[in-house]
UniProtKB/TrEMBL annotation:
Residues 13-144, 204-318 form the EamA domain. The chain crosses the membrane at residues 12-30, 36-58, 70-90, 96-115, 127-150, 162-182, 213-233, 245-267, 279-296, 302-323. It is found in: Membrane. Coiled coil: none annotated. It is a multi-pass membrane protein. Belongs to the EamA transporter family. This is EamA family transporter. Residues 364-395 are annotated as: Disordered. It comes from Sphingobacterium tenebrionis. InterPro entries: AA-Vitamin_Transporters (IPR050638), EamA_dom (IPR000620), EmrE-like (IPR037185). Residues 366-382 have a biased composition (Basic and acidic residues). Keywords: Membrane, Transmembrane, Transmembrane helix. Its main location: membrane.
Length: 395
């Protein structure tokens, strides 16, 4: 029997760096790629490359590729998540900076609260969630207000920026709807399987990598269809694209769509989901840093404040999830043990330390030290095996 190996700390740190930095940088590389690729051609090439490679990987790994109901769900989710939302992001970055796009994308949590009907009672009776919702809308409004009340508010360029922000907001709603469909369609299929095959039965499903490959294939097909119909491919000259922009395209397909996603799935398997979800706080910061240093866009004070407000609102909207997470429970337990060590009689402290943290080896060593001290002093000491006041007390 082969035992599962625990991933090294270095591997986990590398995966986090990829998810934090690579996903955060995709906003910048989309903006860079738009210097050479029309928006729907960009989406078409990116997801055709990524979807084909990922599907090929899944095939050679021996994963089951087709289950009708699962592929149907993946197609719908892929259309909403990777076509509707990503098309909104790519199209919007023609007119607004990738920094603003990343901030508005982080505000997607707002729509999860509003549109997740089965959780309305839980969400709208939670004070942190409601405060987060209000702050989230405030942060989004600040970004819109910067454009509405700017000195060039009535210029054509500013109108394009406002339109792009509205389109992007609609795209985030599409992402939310797709995510919720993915969640609840799986539950419905499991319930149907339970009725037909017994209460513990689950619907046959595809590996998450296979479902993602299908989503990318569907998105690539949708982008290609639009690019053909609106004439983008007819006007596009492959030979005119400089090597640096092909590099940006390859980065988006391989690093953004495949490597970062694979690291994300890996982290979900080895780390708590609430810890992994912290990428949502880091990605916009990475995007703003890249905008500041590598583009001509100005990162304004209003954008930084808006980012802070949005990220704090996301924290509040996820407050109950974080409070009940395993990490917080472990932290509370360690605090409780530390408090007990300070509150217990002085003679009990070494016992608490040994039982809670060091185990039998350190306990034995402390006992030996205590016995040696007895020989050198007339002052009586406690017995580690039976300290006064501890008894069977739980730590």
């Amino acid at each position: 029997m082969v035992k599962a190996t625990t991933p090294s700390t270095a591997t986990i740190i590398f995966a986090y760096l990829v998810v934090y930095i690579v996903w955060g940088s995709t906003f910048f590389f989309i903006e860079k790629s738009l210097h050479a690729f029309p928006p729907f051609v960009l989406g078409s090439i990116r997801f055709i490359i990524a979807g084909t490679l990922l599907m090929g990987y899944c095939y050679f790994k021996g994963y089951k590729i087709f289950i009708k109901s699962a592929v149907k769900d993946a197609a719908m989710v892929g259309f909403l998540l990777l076509f509707v939302d990503m098309a909104a992001i790519i199209w919007s970055e023609q007119y607004i900076s990738s920094g603003i796009v990343s901030i508005l994308s982080a505000a997607t949590a707002i729509w999860f609260i509003i549109l997740d009907k089965p959780k309305w009672k839980e969400n709208f009776t939670s004070v942190p969630t409601l405060l987060g919702l209000i702050l989230g809308f405030l942060g989004v409004f600040m970004l819109f207000a910067e454009q509405i009340f700017s000195p060039n508010a009535h210029s054509a360029d500013n109108d394009n920026k406002l339109t792009a922000m509205i389109v992007l907001t609609l795209g985030t709603i599409g992402w939310t709807v797709g995510s919720l469909l993915s969640k609840y369609s799986k539950e419905k299929r499991d319930q149907k399987a339970a009725v037909e095959n017994g209460p513990k039965a689950e619907a046959e499903d595809l590996n998450v990598m296979v479902k993602t490959a299908w989503q990318m294939v569907v998105a690539g097909t949708a982008f290609t269809t639009v690019a053909l119909l609106n004439g983008e491919y007819a006007r596009f000259d492959f030979s005119a694209v400089a090597i640096e922009y092909w590099g940006a395209m390859v980065y988006l397909a391989l690093m953004g769509s495949i490597l970062a996603f694979s690291c994300y799935i890996f982290l979900l398997q080895v780390r708590p989901a609430t810890e992994v979800s912290t990428y949502a706080y880091v990605n916009p910061i990475v995007a703003l840093i890249l905008v500041h240093f590598f583009t001509n866009h100005e990162v304004t004070k209003m954008q930084i404040i808006g980012l802070a407000v949005v990220l704090f609102s996301v924290l509040l909207m996820n407050w109950n999830l974080y409070v009940n997470s395993e990490l917080i429970k472990k932290y509370k337990r360690s605090r409780k043990i530390k408090k007990l060590r300070h509150m217990a009689p002085k003679s009990s402290i070494p016992r608490i330390v040994e039982v809670a943290e060091y185990g039998k080896t350190r306990l034995k060593k402390a006992k030996e030290n205590n016995e040696s001290e007895k020989k050198t002093t007339a002052k009586p000491e406690f017995d580690l095996d039976n300290p006064d006041g501890l008894g069977d007390q739980e730590l």
